[in-house]
């Protein structure tokens, strides 16, 4: 959803050239990753999230994996919100897509 939206809003058609790479990546994910990941989640009591899978795989009773995952999420989300609140979002967009 992000790549076609970026192509539509910016008018950059290099994004449309990425469709072959996205298709190949999706196929490779289904071919090589998804079956093994599904088997792992069944062994780990049908975990719904990657954090839950790691907790059950490592038998984490202290929930330290969940705390570390939450901290990573908060750090990256807060970084984005702080950039937007400070008004520097246009500077970041310029450097990303120029």
User: Helicity, in percent?
Assistant: over 70%
Tally of separate helices: 6
Mean pLDDT: 77
| Topology order in helix (H) and strand (E) letters | HHHHHH
Classify the secondary structure makeup into a structural class: mainly alpha
**N-end to C-end Cα span:** 21 Å
Please tell me how large the radius of gyration is: 19 Å
- Tell me about the biggest sheet? none
Low-confidence stretches: none
Bin the strand percentage: under 5%
Work out the number of β strands.
Answer: 0
Which term fits the overall shape?
flat
Write structural notes for this entry.
The chain has 98 residues and is mostly helical. It is built from six helices and no strands. Helix 4 runs antiparallel to helix 5. The longest helix is centred in the N-terminal third of the chain and has 25 residues. The mean pLDDT is 77.
